[in-house]
Amino acid sequence: MDIATFLVQCLNAVQYGLLLFLVASGLTLIFGIMGVINLAHGSFYMLGAYLAFALSPVFGDQFMLRLLAGVALAAVFGYLLEWAFFSFLYQRDHLQQVLMTYALILVFEELRSILVGNDVHGVPIPPWLSGGFRLGGLMEYPWYRVFASVACLVVAVALYAVVNRTRLGMMIRAGASNRDMVRGLGVDIRHLYRIVFAGGVALAALAGMIAAPLSSVYPNMGASVLIISFVIVVIGGIGSITGALIASLLVGFVDTFGKVLPQPWDQFSGAGIYLLMAIVLVWRPEGLMKRAV
Amino acid sequence: MPSDAVTAAAAGAQASDPPDIAGLPDIGRREAGGWLVPAAAAAVVAVLPFLVSPYAQDLIVRMAIVAIFALSLELLVGATGLVSLGHAAFLGIGAYAAVLGSGDSGAPLYVLLPLAVGGAALYAAFVGAFSLRTRGVYFIMVTLAFAQLAYFVVHDTKAGGGSDGIFLYVKPVLQVGGTTLLDLGERLHLYYAVLAALVGTYAFIALLLRSRFGHALDGIRVNEQRMRAAGFSTTPYKLAAFIVAGGLAGLAGFLLAVKDGAVNPELLSWHESGAVLLMLILGGIGSLRGAVIGAVAFTLLKELFQSEALVGPLASHWQLTLGLTIIAFVAALPRGLIGLGARLRGAARG
Questions:
Q1: Could you report the per-residue pLDDT of A145-176, keeping only the tens digit for each?
Q2: Does some domain include residue A272?
């Protein structure tokens, strides 16, 4: 592998990892604060991708406007969903939540099939982000991927600032470490849950919207992202944003470089991230960053 | 220590972070009607082939195999409190062992069955040795990871046949001295073999749970720390339960491979692991009957919603109807289908 290929792979790994971070950060917060194992989180990623597809004729070249509109719609959707389906689940045990969110996956997939159909759709890259820059002699790296990385990075920094520097973030962190104590101190935990859930949905949908032009839009696209996000949440430690970031990048690198392994090892590339997770958990059974947001 | 004292010792103290399933009733308890209810149900199923169509017989065989699979997971989830989201790996390994062991020319039943069960149990020993270091949600995820590992090995390597899977060319036969005792290629032979396997699995787990071993598992589910304080080395117990559950799932996989005549990697996918967990929750965790009822109900519901004759054009949208039905179940039945009976009895008493 020459140096230019290596660089491109590194850029791809970072970009993929950051994208996963957007999905996983919402999942880890919902998991850590609300205690809900949300199997439907991958569906929100899919929702974002299909929103990007559906909104692109509406907004035309207004790419940023489209992203904002999509995020806003997804957040409202998440807020309503929490109210309708999740608010009565907190008193139940985890397994009931697993059952409920599994059922939601089925419902979302079928609604997607009824509303949009089962075809694979492409989503156009905005003109000002088309093309790429030269890397080494022959390689060209697309500007859109650079944009994707930067956008995810900006969101990650913003998320970090919100969680660590605002009053809302303080409540979120407190909720992650001791839910009952937060409730005891007079915080309206139900409202906090609803905001966290809406935020998580918006983050996952944003990831889906950013990924849509790269991966195209297709049925069941949420499933693989869901499982990888769970792997990230567990590697990072449940409820930890920093852990999720580190784990996302690790997974991005392992997955990207696993695919360029020489034969016959490339046969096992799909298993790489699961091996990573098994190793991390045998080493640290509660993830890299246990319960520290 | 007598077995009742084991459970009593565990029940006393509060764990610092009790798992959700700790509060469930003792799975080894006597349920209404004792062993008569499952025995009567088995007797009814045994005469059904003379009454129903081959299509229905096929459906019953599938439900029975799925029920064995669900029972094997119940030993982990309901009895020991270990929620595994990777149980399909053992089902798949059992199925693949049967097909790979059979090869082009076939192999006798007494070779293939131990191969399938043993292979699954062996992988369970490996997975258990690592995953039992973790607990709770982390355990769920590590079991998932190891299942995905197995999934990618059969999906991506040449030996596993790739995403298309492999055919089972010769159905296994049990012969003694030239006479065929059991030919699993015959519909009725398979029917009764599967029914016998289900009855055997049910009875085996029921007896296991009444033994000292079963009470120790119950104690571990309720409060593991206290069990350790009472002098039990809990990890070997959990590992043994994990291996037995894996082996029984391998049995289900073997039967599934024989019934379908083919295997594919989707048998090991997390969808399967999720579905079997759903069956337990649907039926009601903490009851062997619940596991069987859940398996039957889930398979029937799926079959019903996919059948064009019954639901018309909705059949192509079966995921929607199944999903909404499950949501309604969750909202209405916190204890699963098995809790419905108790609730009705309570209502009748006023």
A1: 899 999 999 998 999 899 889 999 888 888 87
A2: yes
The number of folded domains in chain A is 1
Tell me the C-alpha distance between A289 and B213, whole Å.
36
As a whole number, mean pLDDT of residues A246-264 equals 87
Cβ contact A230–B135 (<8 Å): no
Q: CA-CA distances (angstroms) from residue A126 to A55, A68, A144, B201?
A: 13, 15, 9, 60
**Any idea what the CATH number is for the domain that residue A23 is in?**
1.10.3470
Residues of chain B numbered 150-189 and touching chain A (CB < 8 Å)? 152-153, 155-158
Tell me which chain B residues have a C-beta less than 8 angstroms from the C-beta of A116. Answer: none
Q: What is the pTM of this model?
A: 0.82
B-chain residues near A285 (CB < 8 A): 133-135, 138
Cα separation, B253 vs B324, in Å, equals: 29
Angle between helices A143-165 and A241-258 (to 10 degrees): 160
Given an 8 Å threshold on Cβ–Cβ distance, is A107 in contact with B320? yes
Query: How much is the pLDDT for A283?
Result: 84
SS3 call for A194: helix
Task: Determine the Cα–Cα distance for residues A135 and A2; give it in Å rounded to an integer.
Answer: 12
Chain position carrying tokens 């079991």: B143
**Interchain pair B21, A93: CB under 8 A:** yes
Domain extent at residue A158: 3-283
Q: What is the pLDDT of residues A194-205, one digit of tens each?
A: 999 999 999 999
**Beta strand B173-176 with B179-183: parallel, antiparallel or unpaired?**
antiparallel
Structural domains for chain B: 33-349 (1.10.3470)
pLDDT band at B23 (very low <50, low <70, confident <90, very high): low
B312 or B209, greater pLDDT: B209
CB B104, CB B167: distance < 8 Å: no
Residue of A nearest to B319 (CA): A106
Partners of residue A88 in chain B, C-beta under 8 Å: 331
Helix or strand holding residue B180 (H, E): strand B179-183
**Sign, Cα dihedral of A110, A115, A117, A118:** negative
CA distance B149 to chain A (A): 5
Q: Is residue A273 part of a domain?
A: yes
The predicted pLDDT at position B22 comes to 54
Report the C-alpha gap between B295 and A248 in whole angstroms. Answer: 36
Search chain A and give the residue with CA nearest B146: A274
**Quick one: closest CA in B to A287, which residue?**
B138
pLDDT at B89 > cutoff 70: yes
Q: Residue B4: is its pLDDT beyond 60?
A: no
